[in-house]
Every structure is written in C-alpha cells, then in structure tokens.
UniProtKB/TrEMBL annotation:
Stated name of the protein: Isoprenyl transferase
Cofactor annotation remark: Binds 2 magnesium ions per subunit.
Enzyme class at the top of the EC tree: transferase
Binding site for Mg(2+): 50, 243
Example GO molecular function: transferase activity
Database matches in NCBIfam families: uppS (TIGR00055)
Annotated residues for binding of substrate: 51-55, 68, 96-98, 103, 224, 230-232
Length: 275
C-alpha cells in the first residue's frame, strides 16, 4: 500500500501500516490537546453512552450485549480523559427506566450483571479519584445491582479529590423533576408550611436543590455518541442551557480524539445561557 507523507510516497504493509496509523493518531491527539485552552474547559460534562449493541454487531460479535461490557470497561478510560483535562463533574447515562422495565428480561439481567461486575466494582477501587453518586429510581433495579452501586457510593463518600461521577441508572428526566418537587413539598410540610404557603415559596432554585445532582453545577456540555441527535430525557432540567455535541462513533469506539473534538467544539461556542 502506498501512503503519501511529507517526504514522499512510502510503501507500507501489515504492521508497518498499523504503526504509521498509531503515529498519525498520536500526533493528531497532541495537536488537539495543544489547541484547547485550559481556561475554557467545561466544569461538568454529561455523556449518553449510546451504541453499545450496534458496535458489537458491527464488530462481528454473535451476542450484541457484549457491546455493553466493552462500553462499561471503556468508561474507565473516558473518565480518565476527563480527569486529565480538569473536568471535575461527570454524569453518565447508563440505563433509563424504560431500558430496565421494557426490554427483554434476559437482556436486562445481562446489563445489570455488567453494571455490578464492571461499573460498580471498578469505581469503588481505592485508586479511583472519583466520588460516586447514583442518580435514578433505584427501586426499579434488582437488589444486587442496587447493593453494588450503594457500596460504590459508600466506598468513595469520603473522597477529597473534588472529582464527582454521577451514574444515571433507572433514570428518567421527568421522573427526576417529579421526585424533586415531591421531596421539596415533603420538606415544607415537615417544616409546618401548608399547601398555599409552600406554593408561594416555590422557586426554580429550590426545586433544583432537590434534583439528583442538586449540589453540583449544571452540565456545561452534553455529549451523545452513536449518531443519534436527541437527548432522550437526559437531565431535562439541568441541561436547559447546556451545549450539545453529537458524535457518530458508537460508545465503545469513542476515541480520545472524539472527546477532544467535543471539547474543541465547546470552546469555540458563544454560550448565551438562553439570552
């Protein structure tokens, strides 16, 4: 195979071609990193990890659910990129309420085992810099999955690194807002306020404080992989003024250069916050 480089045409075969492609990739990644201004890096990045099953089919795996395992293992790498760039808040959309309730029971069982064995176990390791928060309706999850995620959250609760990872599982954006309003009204009732008084005291900020991510900044950037151009109810309230970035790569094939391109696109935008 002929490849044209700055010194002229070069013949590459087999491993030589793969080596050249790795060199080109590394060069391009370094170039993207240099283009990024550390002062314009988002504080909070949210990601819809979409396309796991389609990636597995494209790669020729007989069982498309193998894609979820690869996707879960890839999460380690992606949040590592976030930490390297100084992004201290990350939210990942793992599974919606509909994913858990409406998909084939065998598929859901496989997904839950993958979450227990890969996501929860890896995030609770002492070497992890991330404090884990679980966002979603945990009552729709199997007991074993709920327990594994609780252990991960408890094991990282005292982390003082300042890095926070929200795992959105059994999640629905509308349900989150309902839960927040219900929790706020219950708090008002315990404080002795009636319905009329609670209604007068109701504000957007007070509702926001009771969201699953209530003590964290809203996401500056939402990334969705797999080429789908929709948010699927993800962080409906928090993402009202977020920048959106849609990437064609399936989640297990989401490369560092794809991530850096998303950050470059974010940095080039003029954020208006609804103005």
């Amino acid at each position: 195979m002929w490849v044209l480089c700055r010194w002229g045409p070069v013949v590459l075969v087999g491993g030589s071609l793969r080596g050249m492609m790795r060199m080109v990739y590394a060069f391009y990644a370094r170039r993207l990193r240099r283009q990024l201004d550390p002062a314009v890096v988002p504080r909070h990045v949210a990601m819809v990890m979409d396309g796991n099953r389609r990636w597995a089919r494209r790669m020729g795996f007989g069982d498309p659910w193998i894609g979820h395992r690869y996707g879960a293992e890839h999460l380690d790498e992606v949040i590592g990129w976030c930490a390297e760039r100084g992004i201290r808040h990350v939210t990942v959309f793992v599974a919606s309420v509909d994913n858990v309730r409406k998909r084939d029971s065998g598929e859901v069982d496989n997904l839950m085992r993958m979450i227990e064995d890969v996501v929860a176990e890896r995030l609770s390791r002492p070497v992890s810099v991330w404090r884990v928060h679980v966002a979603g309706r945990l009552d729709v999850l199997p007991d074993s999955t709920r327990h594994a995620l609780k252990l991960a959250a408890d094991a990282t609760r005292d982390s003082a690194t300042g890095f926070h990872l929200n795992v959105a599982i059994g999640y629905d954006g509308r349900e989150e807002i309902v839960d927040a309003v219900r929790e706020l009204l219950e708090a008002e009732s315990r404080a002795g306020y009636g319905v009329a008084d609670a209604a007068r005291r109701l504000t957007a900020d007070r509702i926001a404080a009771h969201l699953y991510t209530g003590d964290q900044p809203d996401p500056d950037l939402v990334i969705r992989t797999s080429g789908e151009h929709r948010t699927s109810g993800f962080l409906l309230w928090q993402a009202a003024h977020s920048e959106l970035y849609f990437c064609d790569a399936f989640w297990p094939g989401f490369r560092e250069i794809d991530f850096l391109r998303a950050l470059r696109s974010y940095a080039a935008r003029n954020r208006r916050f609804g103005a």
